[in-house]
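Field log, afternoon session.

UNIT: design team B
ACTIVITY: writing a sequence onto a fixed backbone
BACKBONE:
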C-alpha cells in the first residue's frame, strides 16, 4: 500500500508561498466527475489512499481522484504562524489547488474538518462543488466529542514501533470502532505516523494543537448552518459513524430538512468518528453515489 506507482505527486505554492502537497490517482474520464478528498484536523492524504485506489481502479467506472495535505500536515509545509491553521485559510488553499490541478468541477469528500472546509468553499467557489460526501461532520459539532479529541491529542504517547502504535490506537479508540479488523488498525497507523530518525511521530505540526487549546468549552461552539444552506442544491451523501460523538443523529435529521437536492444518509456500523471509508460496504455506497451524480450531471 506504500508504493508510489499508484499515484502522481504534486507540489505547489499557496497564495502566501507556503508549499502544499497533493496526490493524483487515475486520469480524466469523459462524463465522469473527478473527486477531491479533504482530511480531518490532524490527518493527511494517506487517510484516503485505500479508497482512492479502489475508485481509480474500479473495473467499471475508474475515476480521477485527488487527495490533499493541508498546510502543517503530511508533506505540506509547516506554517510559521499557527493562527493560519484555520478552515478559511485551508479553504483558500484548496481553491488554489483546484486551479493548479485544473479541476473546474468535482465531488468533494470531506472527512471531519474536510467537511467544514467544503462548507467554506460553498461561499468561496460554489461552482466547483458538483456534489459532496460529508464523513461524520455537519454544521453542529458536538462539544463532548471535540473535547475528547483535544484530550486524546494532548496525551498522545509516542509509540516505539508499529505494533505498539496499533495497540495504543486500539486502547484509545477501540470502543468506538468495534468493526475494525487488525488490518484496518494497521492501515490506520500507517496514515497517522511518519518515521523520523527511527521514531514514529504524528505527521502534523505540533503547533496545530494550539488551535484546540484556544477553544473555550464553557461557551457554545460555533455552528455552520449558513454555510450548510449554501449547499442546498448540491447532491449530498451524509456518512455517520454509528458510535460517533461528533455528529449526532439529531443533527443528521436537521441537515436533511428543506434541502432541494437529493440527500442520502449512510450509517457506518461499528465505527465512530470518523469512519474509515475503505471499510465494509462504504466503498460501494460511495461509488454508487458518484455514478448517480455523473448521470445527473
Amino acid at each position: 500500500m506504500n508504493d508510489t506507482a499508484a499515484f502522481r505527486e504534486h507540489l505547489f505554492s499557496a497564495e502566501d508561498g507556503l508549499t502544499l502537497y497533493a496526490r493524483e490517482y487515475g486520469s480524466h474520464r469523459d462524463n465522469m466527475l473527478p473527486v477531491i478528498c479533504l482530511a480531518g484536523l490532524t490527518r493527511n492524504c494517506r487517510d484516503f489512499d485505500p479508497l482512492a485506489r479502489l475508485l481509480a481502479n474500479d473495473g467499471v467506472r475508474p475515476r480521477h481522484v485527488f487527495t490533499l495535505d493541508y498546510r502543517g500536515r503530511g508533506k505540506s509545509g509547516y506554517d510559521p504562524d499557527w493562527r493560519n491553521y484555520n478552515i478559511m485559510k485551508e479553504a483558500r488553499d484548496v481553491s488554489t489547488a483546484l486551479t493548479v490541478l485544473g479541476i473546474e468541477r468535482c465531488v468533494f469528500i470531506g472527512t471531519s474538518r474536510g467537511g467544514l472546509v467544503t462548507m467554506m468553499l460553498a461561499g468561496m467557489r460554489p461552482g466547483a462543488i458538483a456534489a459532496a460526501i460529508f464523513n461524520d461532520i455537519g454544521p453542529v459539532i458536538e462539544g463532548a466529542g471535540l473535547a475528547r479529541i483535544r484530550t486524546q491529542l494532548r496525551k498522545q504517547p509516542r509509540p516505539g514501533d508499529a505494533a505498539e502504535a496499533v495497540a495504543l490506537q486500539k486502547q484509545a479508540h477501540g470502543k468506538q470502532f468495534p468493526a475494525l479488523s487488525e488490518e484496518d488498525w494497521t492501515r490506520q497507523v500507517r496514515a497517522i505516523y511518519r518515521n523520523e530518525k527511527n521514531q514514529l511521530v504524528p505527521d502534523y505540526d505540533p503547533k496545530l494543537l494550539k488551535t484546540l487549546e484556544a477553544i473555550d468549552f464553557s461557551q457554545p461552539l460555533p455552528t455552520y448552518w449558513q454555510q450548510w444552506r449554501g449547499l442546498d442544491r448540491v447532491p449530498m451523501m451524509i456518512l455517520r459513524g454509528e458510535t460517533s460523538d461528533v455528529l449526532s443523529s439529531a443533527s443528521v435529521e436537521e441537515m436533511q430538512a428543506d434541502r432541494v437536492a437529493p440527500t442520502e444518509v449512510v450509517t457506518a456500523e461499528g465505527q465512530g468518528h470518523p469512519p474509515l471509508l475503505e471499510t465494509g460496504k462504504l466503498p460501494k455506497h460511495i461509488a454508487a453515489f458518484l455514478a448517480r451524480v455523473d448521470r445527473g450531471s
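LOG NOTE: DSSP finds ten helices and ten strands in the chain.
NEXT ACTIVITY: expression trials, pending approval
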